[in-house]
Every structure is written in structure tokens, then in C-alpha cells.
Write a structure and sequence with these properties.
elongated; 8 helices; disordered N terminus
Length: 293
């Protein structure tokens, strides 16, 4: 543009338009697209029905134990209804644990400090926990036979104490594993840890109540069926109820965190798809240039 044209009044709008076209506008540069997720949310299992069945089975088990003690005192270990009920509860617990660990492994990847959850590890730990009390009973029966022959045998005391400690460790391991996995996925660790320790505290309280004179007050004139059932309701029913409620609370919290993580993943994936659809279409490709002959 010449100096005469720039000095004319009619050239002012043209000069402004030319300056606007030549100026740099940051909005003209398209920001790079960064997806929130690179893959759709994984498939997870619905475990809520296992939680409800597990709670119901545990409550029914308490009632079945008390009824069996009232009808046939001292024959709980031979009651098929008691064994069937608690076998079903154990199967439900193992199934929930395996599915929950599978979902956690799919939603939350492993890190350098936390291994991914494993359904196989959870199942093996639960089987060890279920077998531990049976081992303690065998060890106590063996110790009684040995004490009958030699009451001063210190090796029997050491072996029995070691068996009890090993059994306690085996029972504690699956709860510790679930507590660690709860911390890994962001669930309240204290709630899951209470799954093991609250029934222990309840058991200690029951033992203290029994030691303070509950057995003596009920057995003054001999045990009646009602008194035996009442004693069992305190000694067994209270810790079993605490365990049922703590199990319900821990499994519910774990499943809720899994569900929240899956919903967040799905929302991020939907936003990613919407952002991809809103991206401008790419321009025409430049014609291929043939090499010069």
C-alpha cells in the first residue's frame, strides 16, 4: 500500500482489516486433543446380591445354632442344619471376595508399591482361615491325650501355643489382605480393618462377662435348656452378630467404592467420546509430489 493511499480517508478501513488479518490470534490455533480415557470401562460383576445373601445366611445361622442347642444340647457339631448353614455362608463369602478382587484388579491397576488384587490369593487365604480352627481342635485333642499320660510335659504346651498362634495368623491373613486392597482402591481402611478386630473385641468382652459370674449364676441349680440357650446366645450369638454386621459394613463399603470408580470411568469415557465428536474435521491432504525426472 502506497503512502498516498494510506493517507486517504477511505483507506483507513482497509488498513484496519489488513492489520486484523495479519495479526496473530491464539484462538486460531486448535488445542491438542487429550482424551480422559483411552479405553471403555471394563466389565465388572454385580456382587450386591452376594452381600445380602451373606448377611441373611449369617443371621439365620445364629438362629439355627440357638435352636439346635435348645432342642439337642451339646450336639452342635453333629447338627446337619448348622453345618449346612455355615458352609453356605463360607461359600458366599469366598465368592464375594473372588469377584470383588477381580473387579478391583480391573479398575485399579497395580503400582510400584501395591500389587494388583488377585481372586486366587483371596480364595486361598480364606480356605486357610477356614481350616485353621480345625487344626486348633486337633492340636487341643492331641494335647489332652498327652497331658493325660504326662501332665508335666512342657513340649506339649509349646506345641499347642504355636498351633494357636499359627491358626490366629491364618485367620487374620484374609482380613489383612482385604484391608490392603481397600487402601489401594481408596476405600476407608478403618472400616475394613474393623471387619476382623470388632468381633475380636466382642469375644473378649463375652469372655470377661462369663468370667465375672455369668456361668455361676445360670448353673446354680443345673443347666436347663433355656439357660443353656441363653448362655450360648451370650457366648456365641453376640460375637457372631457383631461379625455379621461388620462383614456387611466392610463388603458394602468395598462394593460402593468399586461402583463409584466404575461410574467415574464411564463418565470420563462418555466425555472423551463427546470431545472426539466435537473435533473439527481434518483438512484436505496435500497432493502427492512426484519426484522430478
Amino acid at each position: 500500500m502506497s503512502a498516498a493511499q494510506a493517507a486517504s480517508p477511505d483507506a483507513a478501513p482497509a488498513l484496519a482489516a489488513s492489520t486484523a488479518r495479519s495479526s496473530f490470534d491464539p484462538s486460531d490455533v486448535t488445542a491438542p486433543f487429550t482424551p480422559l480415557r483411552v479405553e471403555p470401562p471394563p466389565r465388572i460383576y454385580a456382587t450386591w446380591w452376594l452381600r445380602y445373601l451373606l448377611l441373611l445366611t449369617q443371621l439365620v445361622g445364629i438362629v439355627v445354632v440357638l435352636s439346635a442347642e435348645y432342642v439337642q444340647p451339646g450336639r452342635l457339631s453333629h447338627s446337619s442344619s448348622v453345618l449346612t448353614t455355615y458352609a453356605l455362608a463360607a461359600a458366599l463369602l469366598v465368592c464375594w471376595s473372588a469377584l470383588a478382587m477381580t473387579d478391583a484388579g480391573r479398575l485399579v491397576p497395580a503400582t510400584a508399591y501395591h500389587r494388583s488384587s488377585s481372586a486366587l490369593v483371596a480364595v486361598v487365604l480364606w480356605l486357610g482361615a477356614f481350616a485353621a480352627p480345625l487344626g486348633v481342635f486337633r492340636a487341643v485333642a492331641w494335647a489332652r491325650d498327652r497331658f493325660a499320660d504326662n501332665p508335666d510335659d512342657a513340649a506339649v504346651v509349646v506345641a499347642t501355643t504355636f498351633a494357636v498362634l499359627v491358626a490366629f495368623l491364618l485367620v487374620w491373613l484374609p482380613f489383612h489382605y482385604h484391608t490392603g486392597q481397600a487402601q489401594r482402591i481408596g476405600a476407608p481402611q478403618r472400616v475394613v480393618a474393623g471387619w476382623f478386630w470388632l468381633p475380636i473385641v466382642a469375644t473378649v468382652g463375652v469372655v470377661m462377662v462369663s468370667a465375672l459370674g455369668l456361668n455361676d449364676s445360670l448353673s446354680q441349680d443345673g443347666w436347663t435348656p433355656g439357660e443353656r440357650t441363653l448362655h450360648l446366645a451370650v457366648v456365641f450369638g453376640a460375637p457372631a452378630l457383631v461379625f455379621a454386621l461388620s462383614t456387611w459394613r466392610a463388603t458394602t463399603v468395598f462394593d460402593e467404592v468399586i461402583d463409584l470408580r466404575w461410574r467415574r470411568w464411564r463418565k470420563d469415557w462418555e466425555q472423551t467420546l463427546a470431545a472426539m465428536a466435537a473435533q473439527p474435521a481434518p483438512g484436505p491432504e496435500a497432493p502427492a509430489r512426484l519426484p522430478d525426472a
